[in-house]
Amino acid sequence: MRSYRFDILQQLRTSKEPSIRYQILRFIDGKDPHRSEMQFVQDEIKRSDRIQKLLADVDIVHPYSKWQGAHWVLSLLAELHYPKGDEDLFSLRNEVYKWLFSEKHLKSIKTIEGKVRRCASQEGNAIYYSQVLGLMDERTDELIDRLLAFQWGDGGWNCDKNPKAYNSSYHESLIPFRALIRYLHDKQSQISTSRKTTIENAIYNAKEVFLKRELYLSLDRGTIINPNFILLHFPYYWRYNIMFALKVMHEGGFISDPRCDKALDLLELKELPSGGFPAEKRYYYSRTAKSGRTAVNWGGVNKYKMNEWVSSEAYYILSGCGRLNKQEKAKD
Predict the structure, then answer these.
(1) Which residue, 172, 267, 165, is CA-closest to 210?
(2) CA 170 from chain center: how many Å?
(3) Terminal CA-to-CA distance of the chain, rounded, Å?
(4) CB of 139 within 8 A of CB of 105?
(5) Contact 232, 280 (CB under 8 A)
(6) What does the pLDDT look like over 102-134, one tens digit per residue?
(7) What is the per-residue pLDDT across 271-282, written as a single tens digit (0 to 9) for each?
(8) Per-block average pLDDT, block size 10, for the chain (332 residues)?
(9) Phi, psi angles (nearest 5°) of residue 20
(10) CA 247, 171, 51, 8: dihedral to nearest 10 degrees?
(11) 298 and 288 in contact (C-beta within 8 Å)?
(12) Cβ pair 295, 49 in contact under 8 A
């Protein structure tokens, strides 16, 4: 019994960040998102200082400018549980779609040795936040078609133009995988049986890219594929780590697969003695950096200090797979 978890969850429930409060209330405590108290928290999210800074600091030069372009801001709003259907976001979405459907962008898509070399995390993220934020239109369906057409034979995606590259990229495969899961969940009653089957097959094949390697281990030697894969960080942006992978597995209903167990064990081992989880790495920098700038503070990196964002994600995952003791959840 890890009794300290109750105290940490209480701390997260009363966080000054409404996005963290919302995540704990909805996904750990099981609150109905349609209840007035939950809608009030989402209103807080929309009005929060963090969201206002992100929106005010959008880079108008290019939607993919890291991390201030419209593409990344919309991605963050989706992760932060920004309320769905805000028409004020349509202009940002249109900037992104103008880029993704531009002649220049389409010409950058190359097929080498029979494999489409494409940073499919770009289309994948656009699909995902378009659905979560209520910004979908017919172009979103076209982006789904791209993912299906660009998928490699092993189930994933890759932008590596080296003709010898034969494995999918973890970075470029997780986000498209997530987008297909969300699309099927939201649209399965509106699409044809054949399209549904095609997407289900694509999801299955993408899932196996990760699960056959237990999310972070090489097939041949069973060693860690990349040391950064096991370091916890938030926001994820396009960078892979086991926490992000476990979150997507949970979203897709695959977290109970025993091939997730080693990654779950490793995640639990990272819990601090007093509770909570640290941020072990970051991919964001101050506003003076040339790339990867952020207008907000995500808690920094300290392996001995709890990071609320990382902790909220980790406890969401542990709750979803039954590893968070039910007695430690708040009662209604």
Answers:
(1) 172
(2) 13
(3) 21
(4) no
(5) yes
(6) 999 999 999 999 999 999 999 999 999 999 999
(7) 999 999 999 999
(8) 81 97 97 96 98 92 94 98 96 97 94 94 98 97 97 96 93 98 94 97 98 96 97 98 98 98 98 96 83 91 97 97 67 42
(9) -70, -45
(10) 40
(11) no
(12) no
Pairing of strands 110-112, 115-117: antiparallel
Q: Which amino acid is at 146?
A: R
- The residue type found at 266 is L
How big is the chain by its Cα radius of gyration, in Å? 19
Give the number of other Cβ atoms within 10 Å of residue 134's Cβ. Answer: 16
Q: Is 211 exposed, middle or buried (0-12, 13-18, 19+ CB in 10 A)?
A: middle
Residue-wise pLDDT tens digits, 204-256 = 999 999 999 999 999 999 999 999 999 999 999 999 999 999 999 999 999 99
Closest by CA position to 27, among listed 40, 16, 12, 15: 12
Phi and psi (nearest 5°) for 217?
A: -110, 140
Amino acid identity of residue 244, one-letter, is F
Alpha-helical segments (H) within the chain:
4-13, 18-23, 36-47, 49-56, 70-79, 90-100, 103-107, 120-132, 138-150, 170-187, 193-211, 242-252, 261-269, 308-320
Task: At 117, list the tokens.
Answer: 């070399």
- pLDDT at res. 2: 66
Contacts of 203 by beta carbon, 8 Å cutoff, 6+ apart: 177, 180, 181, 184, 252
Please check whether residue 159 is in contact with residue 127, taking contact to mean a CB–CB distance below 8 angstroms. no
* Side chain identity, residue 329: K
Q: Domain extents for the chain?
A: 4-328
In the block, residue with structure tokens 């030069």: 61
pLDDT attached to residue 327: 43
Cα 283 to Cα 1: distance, rounded to the nearest angstrom: 34
Q: Does domain 4-328 have CATH number 1.10.287?
A: no
